[in-house]
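Researcher: Structure for this, please.
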Amino acid sequence: MVIQDAIEQKQCPGAVVFVGHHGRVVYKKAYGMRSLEPTREAMTLDTIFDIASLTKVVATTPSVLRLLELGEVRLNDPVATYLPEFAQNGKQEITIRELLTHYSGLPEDLDLKTPWEGKEIAEQMAFASGLVAPPGSVFRYSDVNFEVLGFLVERLAKMPLDKYADAFVFQPLGMKETRFLPPPQWHRRIAPTEYDEHNLMLRGVVHDPTARRMGGVAGHAGLFSTAADLSKYAQAVLDEIHAKPQRRQFLKSLTMVKATRPQQPPDATSLRGLGWDIDSPFSSNRGELLPLGSFGHTGFTGTSIWIDPYTDTYVILLTNAVHPHVGHSVIALRGKVADVVATILDLGKEMHDKNPLLAITGYNEAMTGSRRMAYRNAKVLNGIDVLEATHFAALKPAPADASPRRIGILTNQSGVDADGHRTIDILNSVPGLKLTALFIPEHGAVGQLDTTEVGNTTDAATGIPVYSVYGDTDAKRRPSVDQLKQLDAVVIDLQDVGVRFWTYQTAVGYFLEAGAQAGTEIMVLDRPNPITGSAVSGPIADPDKRSYVSYYMIPSRHGMTMGELAQLFNGEQKLGASLTVVPMQGWQRGDWYDSTGEVWVNPSPNLRSLNENTLYPGLGLIEGTNVSVGRGTDTPFEVLGAPWIKSQELAGYLNNRHISGVRFVPYSFTPTSSVYANQLCGGVNMLVTNRLTLDSPELGIEFATALHKLYSNDFQIEKMITLVANRQTIDDLNAGVDPRFISSKWNEALEGFEKVRERYLLYK
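Model: Predicted structure, token format:
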């Protein structure tokens, strides 16, 4: 009914629909007319369509993926590695992945305002194209991306794209009615499109004007096919994803799974696979009932395909909506057809248990083309609250007729329970425990000292001695093994902030080392990672760059809690400490601090808000250089500047980088302490516009690159090495490599880290 209504409303002259489910075609039908002008012809199931941009995913994408399987290309390689001429006009760092996902920054199409003809001219024009946005910054659908990919296939395969796709995609799958440049004997079954510039009806000649000028074979358009052939392709894709045996395998299962899952930059909101659309402004053909995680594509002539691996379903809708004149749209029709299919097949029963994306904390797909987290209003109990609720059982208090267990505590102002009572006072009042020593990390007992002079003292409320484990030497930063031998257990209650260079993590590591040597139990009372436990990004510390601000080889934003880190430190280093973690209750990995219901307590003098903590993984990376990050102002880590920075110049440069999730306001300030104390600094104030898409470690690299480029005589980039702790990243910064390309180089190591990290996670 919905298709017939669309035909009556002149949205299209006719259509062919194929629906596949669980390995077989469950519905196929032709509707309306194939041709209205110059002759009227009824639509038939075997009608051949100009499938327009479906060419991208049916011909070009699988061809590139085959090259990937053969080891001839890598996704993160610059295109210019294989097509040197492409490096013109600032494109030298655009990667193959960015072409496939439409994050290259290239224009939408080649210039058609001036006359030109031939594939060689098109290649020259594509290679000479300039950028309309920095690579990796924004999703911009571009035919040029796939024109270049077509040239890439031809260059590496040493054969035309149409021949390559036919040999390694169409023929293996038995797609005998799919090809570029359809032969004359097919013409009577081809659905015409529209009149060309010479007033001739296009039939068997590609509709896309760029592909037509290129001779009919192009990476972005030019393919002709039938619904029956496309159903073979869709079924093959599903079979590969599900690793089902096939008579004719054209790609490996792992390759297809990778291609159909999100491959866009990690801070991007439009979700794209390799060639495939997942959730973007072009995803209308998914409808409202098929789940996120399914994928597909559309074509300008009125064609579309959508594939759902979770319910083992595909929907193919082929129309020639541009016939006889452009101006009609089937955008709404695509979604309606998908909804009808989902309803009739009752796919809802199959989706819920099979779609892993539905399990993501607070996921909401109400806005097509954007990821949104519906923030939770939770009540989280920290480790100390759980310990209280369980009557301190984990600490094993001694019975009344035995000597109490001797306890030490490593804590500071953040060590309080839900009612604001200090962990120190709580444990000091537990029968069977004797609190004999307090230890304080950097910034002291109340978190207000910003100096290495953190000395020993006495706790005023309890009279218990307080020992500093912070100072200007390594010895001052480590607990005494002999002292720990006098204790049965050390309880650690410290707030982490989610970054590698947070020194409280190192304090925990040092206590694990000393506890293992002393035979003293270490107990960590866990607290939330304020910036979620789901995001992992940034450079991983090199083994030879470990220091007090880089205790272990983890990324700068690690996505773990203090308890999880303690388990990782103990396990990966085989320290052998007797470690107990008292986990939180009610916390989920996707929770930001504002979802916990907890009162914010400044974890250090210069982290005074969640907004500052959000920016800290980026600003912290460059803090060791000769710039001010706002220490000595009311907004540390929300501003950056120096006397030699021109505010408007820096803000303009950064805003033109289109960095996701943040904007920059020209700003000047005068710090009262720290770097450039009492000196007027030009710089920027950072406004977080979307913390979900902000890749804060990459933001730090963006800052370093901007300062190195604009103020090379002033900015001391080499001083970043201590906090970045990754030589390759520093070398790339010195070489002027684009920040997005630098961050892409982290991915392989991050994938390895996440496998290790998985073993120590306590929360879903």
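Researcher: Any notable elements?
Model: The chain has a mean pLDDT of 93. The two ends are 44 Å apart (CA to CA).
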